[in-house]
Structures
1.
Amino acid sequence: MRSSRARVNGFRPNPGPIPCHERRSCDPGIAGIILGTTSLTIEQTLHRFSPPAAAFVRGLYAEHWDESAWLWERREGLREAGPLISTRQWAQSEARTEAHVHALFRGGTWVLEDAVARSTEATPGELHTLVRLGCRHGQRPIVERVLSEFEGESEKRSWAIREALLWDLPVAWHPWIKDRFEHGHLGEWAIETLAFVAGRRRFSLGRSLFERVKTSTNPTLVDALGRLWEPGAAELVWPYAQGEGSHALKRAVSLCVLRNDPLAARRLLQWAVETGQSWAATGFAMSVGTSGFSPLRRLSERIPHATEPWWALGMLGHTGAIPHLMTALSDDGARVAAADALYLLTGADLFEAFEEPDPDEPALIHVGKRLNTSPDAWDAWLRDRKAAFGEAGVRVRFGQPFDPRRTLQELRTTAVRSELRDHLVEELEVRYRVPIDVDARSRVNDRERGLQAVERMVLAQPKVPAGHWTLLGQPVG
């Protein structure tokens, strides 16, 4: 049913989301069909109904199934398109999805059995819904089947399964995941998926992950190792950054080293920046002070159309970067990243509203904001405010002396584009040595809980004056 979607962003209010992976199993009276108890199949159940009633029930659950799958895929489409949809709109969409998934869950395992029967041809959104239901019903065979049969042939299908497990995998299954990782006969994609979930949930996979990374250059495994703060991880992975690996691998290596040994990482990343490697720029900016400005500026001049050096200049917070960034706004290949960096430094409210039809469903209108990249607009904004950014030796973020609480406040919005928000989260983890379990893909409620926890941990650390560069609680030059 698509007629109901001809509305702005396809979002409409719904009751708040229902807790997910805390739920362990369904009502015992309806459980068991997948595991072969005496519960009735969907056909047997509906056979007892009158034909109109059976048709209504089928249509109702088909609509829940269709809407849940469509909403997840719409979420991916909006993320890929890059419009700055508001946090409120994201929350409304997530609440709608949760309502449909919960309705399917309440339908019992006869609904789940029907879902399993058609999973072979499932779209990414349908696969996402199936895995969530399998987790909520405590049906490990469904997760086993997905891990065994789907090889992540598309990035969207991979994310559909990863996010379903991340959101709904019962905590009680963590030991089972560890066992499957160590002893299960799983393919590379399944191993990667389990490592992803373990890294984001921060539960240990033991030395088996460490041993796998010894012989694997998979960025997801390296990232998980870094998130789990495994001893010896930095020394193990750094050689991968010096070889011919992909950009994604080297980024994962830099974060793994930063999370486990930031002082050593600073030296290693400076070498990479000075030899013209863009992947090292943002990691370097997370670990240095004023001394990082000149190397990063030279890197941005050396490879002007790479995004990371410009973002790194904004993250560093050195006001000397502003004239250089203003010049970059005149370069078509650099202007978007330069505007992002200027926003990190100034917090200028230079966003432009836009409306555009969805390419797949023209009746669906996207409304959002984009950061202005016009040199004239930025010049006019800065003209009367230059004095606010002229004090030497003060680190700035969003127009104020740097304070981690201001970054946390910004992370609660969608003003900063998704990938850059992830860098800001990583920066807090590195500079303040706090575990952070949220990123730009996190659901709104999950992100809020995670950021509240981070704020408590950061504020519990020794007080550092605003505007200082710090690393591990100590000033850094």
Note: The mean pLDDT is 84.
2.
Amino acid sequence: MSTLSSRHPGCDSCIAVYDLDCSPWTFDFANFLYCASHHFLSLGFNRFKVFIVLPSPRISLYQPWISTQGYTFRSASDTLRRVQALLMPLSSLFPGVANAQVFYTRKDMLKELNIHSRIFPAGYFAHFPLRLPPKLPYNYVYTNGIEDSIQLSDSDLLTAAEYLENIGITHQFVCITDRNQIFTPERNLDYKLLSDLAALITQVGLQSLIIPDKEISSNEYPAGAIIATEAFYNISLRAAIYQLAFFNYFPSTGPVVLAMFNPNVDFCCPLYHSTEKILEYHIKETGYNTALPSPWNTRFRHVASKVNDKRMALRIFSSMLKHKASLYSIHPY
């Protein structure tokens, strides 16, 4: 992928505002960065700044929406730690981001703006924080594809390769991303599916690597699988592991964006939870049916299928993994 370089000396005037009063402090931030990149590219600017505004302690008009998504208000210090652990590292993966700054209040943020500032998302201003329209990522993806999105340096990949060697990865591997959350637990990976995935990976002749959903996970993992605990909280390491993996499996979980926005990552992410309700909600919110082919889906990159249960998800994964293994002359041991 090509590296973005500034074509305009005035790119400092391009500001993407991510307001946590109306946007979640989750991996969804990658959607925002992707859209901001292509918004400013359409204006002729390849670089932009990101301003992250911490949520206000009061319950605003925008907090109820956050609550319906399963997020609860955190103290400023807790939220700041989350921003530093997730949002800031995500910013560093997108080459269009010149730098990212955190502000405790919108008033502080406004001091950095002027009449020449170009603001994304369009329509944002201090008294009316605006969340990213759900349809926008799909509009940009259908128009522009995902090139020039997430980019990893040679140093990132080398560091990840050394880490993998240190924890026992000796040959090509498949990475499974675990999910173990109270919120929408039907999206979680259960032990039976984890075991079946690991057994299939071994049958093909590859190693199994699991990235846990918590630094100290309560989940029981299949014997023989290698657990990459550090990748839980190290975003650049996690992103590099996905790129180095022969293949990846995701449940319906936030970290899948690190694969979706990186064309160098092969992966499978079936949506098998409450399929009909999820599809109905998603179509209503975005106007797009994720059960249909999309620019994200290629021969070895498959996101969002109309999957009835986890057994069907396993069959999709098996088909894709075995097909790629046969093309790369990988045989069972």
Note: The chain has twelve helices and ten strands.
3.
Amino acid sequence: MSSIYQLDADATRLVSVSKTLVGNNTAGIQVPIFGLTGTVDAILWGIVTTVIGATTTAAYLQLNDSTATPDISLAAGVDISGLVAGSGIYRRGQVGSALEKLDAATGLVTDPAAVNAAMMTIVRLTKKSTATTNVEFVYSTTAAPTSGVIQFFAKYLPQSADGALVAI
């Protein structure tokens, strides 16, 4: 079983940032959340702190190095419309998997995908050597404008001497 949570607590780092969603009837809104240096292994998630607007869809994570935007989760995204405070979005699968949303409008019990599996999957991220590289939250909305706040978290383990994620 591979889980960042099994690593020495002193070796991992936690960073977070809150972002207000303000898209206005637009598809593919890119919101930089973490700046990347070097190489890291990371677990990524977000917790809604203010209810999300009614038509906020196609939410996913990507890396952006100014010329390429490789997906961190499935680019078709997940509909996060109306998620209430306390709800979460989690990267629980591989790159081809959509973010998982857990709506706090009702009580929830969540298990890992399999016995002895991690609750959230690790992704290795590497900065493009010649460009600023960011982790971005991407979403679409048909609202004019949408609303809501998500606090994003990254728990990471540096894999290079300069490996780090910093809040943007």
Note: Residues 1-7 have pLDDT under 50 and may be disordered.
4.
Amino acid sequence: MIWCFLTRPIYLNFFYTGMEPVILNDVSSHMCASISKSVAGLIVIFIGQSLPNSNENHTMIFEALVVTYSMCYILVYTMMEPLQSSIRALYISFIQNEEIFNQAFPLVYSRLRRVRNQDNNFV
């Protein structure tokens, strides 16, 4: 309950500053999911190639590969979580202190400002 109270000003700033379209068009979570699926799939392919080719235990091999895929996906996606958090922190920093953000990250600032202005013009 206190979490909602503390994040309400930041939530309202997203809408008042025009950052809502930028947040909605953020592809970082999709990117991390795609990378996780790709890495997990490659690991399963390599493990599947190393398993012996027997005609008796298809169910066991299938279960082992599904468990391997699931565990690898979860592991890689968890490792990508700091990347997602840092992108969200950049958005919050941009909204709260644009001048300081401009001094610290001028290239990111110009890109976010351009995207925000472009999305506001289309709405």
Note: The chain has a mean pLDDT of 79.
